[in-house]
Known about the structure:
Order of helices and strands of chain A: HHHHHEEEEEEEE
Radius of gyration of chain A: 20 Å
CATH architecture of the largest domain in chain B: Orthogonal Bundle
Number of helices of chain B: 10
CATH superfamily of the largest domain in chain B: RNA polymerase sigma factor, region 2, helix turn helix motif
Order of helices and strands of chain B: HHHHHHHHHH
Oligomer: heterodimer
Amino acid sequence: xxxxxxxxxxxxxxxxxxxxxxxxxxxxxxxxxxxxxxxxxxxxxxxxxxxxxxxxxxxxxxxxxxxxxxxxxxxxxxxxxxxxxxxxxxxxxxxxxxxxxxxxxxxxxxxxxxxxxxxxxxxxxxxxxxxxxxxxxxxxxxxxxxxxxxxxxxxxxxxxxxxxxxxxxxxxxxxxxxxxxxxxxxxxxxxxxxxxxxxxxxxxxxxxxxxxxxxxxxxxxxxxxxxxxxxxxxxxxxxxxxx
Amino acid sequence: xxxxxxxxxxxxxxxxxxxxxxxxxxxxxxxxxxxxxxxxxxxxxxxxxxxxxxxxxxxxxxxxxxxxxxxxxxxxxxxxxxxxxxxxxxxxxxxxxxxxxxxxxxxxxxxxxxxxxxxxxxxxxxxxxxxxxxxxxxxxxxxxxxxxxxxxxxxxxxxxxxxxxxxxxxxxxxxxxxxxxxxxxxx
Lengths: 243, 187
């Protein structure tokens, strides 16, 4: 476990120094939100290096800066607190450029985290009940993790996004699952943007191992046909959690 | 910690709590307490005033959005706010498309000016008078320089290895071992 811990410590160093790509940063923030000991480690290092930031020469804010900012804030919705059910974060999307490929094993680390494997960085990870029956990590066509769906099989599922998804005005993200070929794709819900949300699933058979989940880009309000019509943003097969 | 600093930290904690609970005056309070220094930090990394203002604006919107997720137990509110701004500055700095409107001369100026920040003579000014300065002083020169090039000047691993004329792996290991020593010295 020590080598593993060293890796995580090295990630923390890179994160605090700003040596990660935007995608790596988001994945690492997902790790931190699920592991309080790691978050505390990062916060300590950040505070220790803070004097370097504070040595910058102060500059007067331009006139009207605060007012302009307030005008933006007034139309900016706030992200919710972390979802209590899973203890995992709402990973906020950043209005950044297209994410570059993260180091593959950092993505793997984040994926194994959401699959319920403890990181073991110091603190015990808490996974409060109820546990999801299946978890699907949705990848885009480049193999990048975009979102995670946890299906509790009691007509509720949760979706979280691990990287930014651009939603043009007038469009929405719709989550789908394919319980069986005979049933065809069923909508789990429509989202106005890449935010963590609870999905109120329809009355479906209990989710199964290797069941397909996907998110597509649809007109605002959701697909007019009840079937996916837009491009697939990301998709993945569920992994059963009865371990 | 001096009384002033304690009071500032308490006010910043309260401002972040205000934001977390949806009160926009929290943002005004943060600007009042830290705005000029935050803008100064953004300008130090981005060199250009317009980019620095953009970064500060983006960062404060992010503070507003994410305040509810900031757990007070995880370090200081101040450290959290500065980290958000630094991240935003680095994202702008590494976004080729974002900077594509600038002339090649201007890009070169931005790229080079940051290196001046960590000249061998001046680095002590960066760390202030506290323990951090003493611990940085105790590091090997290349390790210290690599850490400062990353944290203060915002260079990537690749840029640091090029600037120090060593392979990427060497630069990474300088940073890694330097930070390990630094942590030990500061603890």
